[in-house]
Amino acid sequence: MKLLEHQGKRLLGQAGVRVPLGRVVTTPDGVREAAEALGTRVALKSQVAAGKRGKSGGIRFAATPQEARLAASYLLGTGLGGSIVDTLLVEECADIRTELYAAVLNDPATKGPLLLFSTSGGMDIEEVSARDATAIRRAAIDVRTGLTAETVTTLLDGLELPAELITTMLAMYRLYRDLDAELVEINPLVITTAGEVIALDAKISLDPGALGRHEELLSELDLSPRPEGTELEQRGRALGLQYLELDGEVGVLANGAGLTMTTLDAVNHYGGRPANFLEIGGDAYTKATPALQLVLDNPRVRSLVVNFCGAFARTDVMTEGVLDAIEQLRPEVPIFFSIHGTGEEKAVGLVRERLGVEPYDTMDEAVRAAVAACAPTQKVMS
After folding, report:
1. Which residue has the higher pLDDT, 203 or 311?
2. Suppose 7 and one of 3, 154, 316, 322 were both cysteines; which one would form an S-S bond, judging by CB atoms 3.0 to 4.6 Å apart?
3. Are residues 92 and 40 in contact, defined by beta-carbon separation less than 8 angstroms?
4. What is the pTM of this model?
5. What sections of 297-343 are H helices per DSSP?
6. How far apart are CA 349 and CA 71, in angstroms?
7. Is the pLDDT of residue 226 over 70?
8. How many Å apart are CA 82 and CA 226, to the nearest integer?
9. Which strand (E) or helix (H) includes residue 74?
10. Do residues 91 and 43 lie in contact, with contact meaning Cβ atoms separated by under 8 Å?
């Protein structure tokens, strides 16, 4: 469960981490009043469980209460990261000297907590790692002893940083431990011109399986479930389908997560871009009509690949379900089939008989045809 920024900052502040003064508001007039009370240049930060809010336009700055109200009118009610912005955090701006990155997270490699630190704060940590892996310092934490000041001091060896940074990271670990958290991240963690260490952002994820141990926290923070993901992804979850919306044009229906991923890789290999991940293996083929509707409701979809490979699962049964969906929904985009495995002969016959099209002999041929249908003037990789 991902906490919103203001919820995370509240917990960080209670744990002893310095955070900016701020107020949580839901109306433009409330934003204006908050800016007046803070009496300085303010940041308006959309409170949604999504990353890269700054790059997506979800964070604005204002020098006056009137500017803050105008910015709030723009932000409130807009869509961001698959959610509607209905709450803003208005907080004072810091006079930044240095931006850092710090996080405590679950580490699959060591099967325990891991402390991460970088002097390249304010950037996506993935970008930092890709550019220079040595820019990120790591310290595995033994849960039997916890994080110690000595460990943090060793991690920061050679860097001229305020001593407050050590107490900040120790507080982050205590919060991680006490919350049964999966992640406690501050990016950026800044040093001001006055030498103060302040958390300008907060990303905290809790282990859903441990929420029963934190009933007081749930009521205190009002952690009512918020929909995450795009509208189509939310519909997919409601239907019990594993659907992920992507930014391409080639729709994909396949049985099994592995085959679906392989199909997506093939679309990319042949110069196309997949529009979705959606596997309808197991009993999901019984939901072929709503599954196909999900794919078609993505306005970017310009072609569709149906890729079935059956061992225990019968491809003729899955194909019949998809054909029923196609006849009911009558999609206007071209559809390209690749069918192999148990029931293949009957499945291929059904496609020929009911749609009058010929399935392709291989997945690669079907994918190449789908990519070409999306971009007929674009050269398709061979």
Report:
1. 203
2. 3
3. yes
4. 0.64
5. 315-329
6. 60
7. no
8. 11
9. helix 65-75
10. yes
